[in-house]
Amino acid sequence: MSTLVIGALGGTGRLVVDALAATGASVIAGVHHPRQANAPAKRGVERRFLDLTGESAEMEKAFSGVDTVVNTAAARDTSQAARVDRDGAVAAMSIAQRVGVTRWIQISMAGVDRPEVLPGFLLAAAEAKRAADARLADTTMAWTVIRPPWLTDAPAGGRIVINDVGGGSLSRADLADTVVASLGESATINRTFEVASGPLPIRVALARLT
Ligand SMILES: NC(=O)c1ccc[n+]([C@@H]2O[C@H](COP(=O)([O-])OP(=O)(O)OC[C@H]3O[C@@H](n4cnc5c(N)ncnc54)[C@H](OP(=O)(O)O)[C@@H]3O)[C@@H](O)[C@H]2O)c1
What percent of the chain has pLDDT over 70? Predict the structure, then answer.
């Protein structure tokens, strides 16, 4: 069985693919444009077309033989957040559950439950993420919702803080490592948490989730 990464050519998505592949896991890169899906596989990573706003039958095909999904996708334009981050993600969850996916890690956004702390330009995306997170918790899949703050392209620091509502930032590299570590940590199952750069080694911080 395999792990499929949605949004696999995005900033975080490509790092999740690399980090998973480095563990020896079977990884499938879910890509958003058909021409990207036709590009040759790199380092043995299969590519499959997966557009969250696409046809159900195409999504069903993408999930074939997949047991775990990591959704790192986001609409480029926040005016599309309801269509992609909410409706697209929710449709994909339903299809995934129906075809036998048992584990789903969702990248959400810090502050979606505290919209008063968010700048106005993030509100549509935050509302879309919050609705998708809620739907995920209603599925029968084992789920994890990870809510990072502002993402950077800094190198991995390997240390995080969980559920510290002070804001901050997180590198995409540390977010990718948090995703991979979450897959091996049962304390993350059926949990939602915010994560930022902080003092604790990633695995230690995740193991302390209650
Ligand atoms: N950036 C931040 O500061 C920040 C803060 C908090 C949370 N987040 C969340 O963290 C995650 C990763 O963020 P990021 O900035 O690393 O991502 P990113 O670079 O923006 O990548 C997002 C990926 O999603 C793909 N995508 C867009 N529409 C899609 C669709 N309909 N179907 C499938 N894939 C689609 C994009 O493809 P195209 O490029 O082809 O459109 C892109 O590859 C996202 O969920 C984001 O909302 C980001």
Answer: 100
**129 CA distance to ligand 1 middle (Å):** 12
Residue of 156, 11, 140, 157 whose CA lies nearest to 73: 11
pTM of the complete model = 0.98
Beta-sheet pairing, 66-71 with 103-107: parallel
Encoding tokens for residue 57? Answer: 């039958």
Q: What spacing in Å lies between the alpha carbon of 80 and ligand 1's midpoint?
A: 12
Counts of helices then strands in the chain (DSSP H, E):
8, 11
User: Which domains are present in the chain?
Assistant: 2-207 (3.40.50.720)
Q: Is 62 in the pocket of ligand 1 (CB under 6 A)?
A: no
Name the residue with tokens 């050519």. Answer: 9
Q: How confident is the model over 73-86, as a mean pLDDT?
A: 97
**pLDDT given at position 118:** 94
Answer for the pair 56, 87: CB distance below 8 angstroms, yes or no.
Answer: no
111 Cβ below 6 A of ligand 1: no
Among residues 19, 7, 20, the alpha carbon closest in space to that of 50 is found at 7
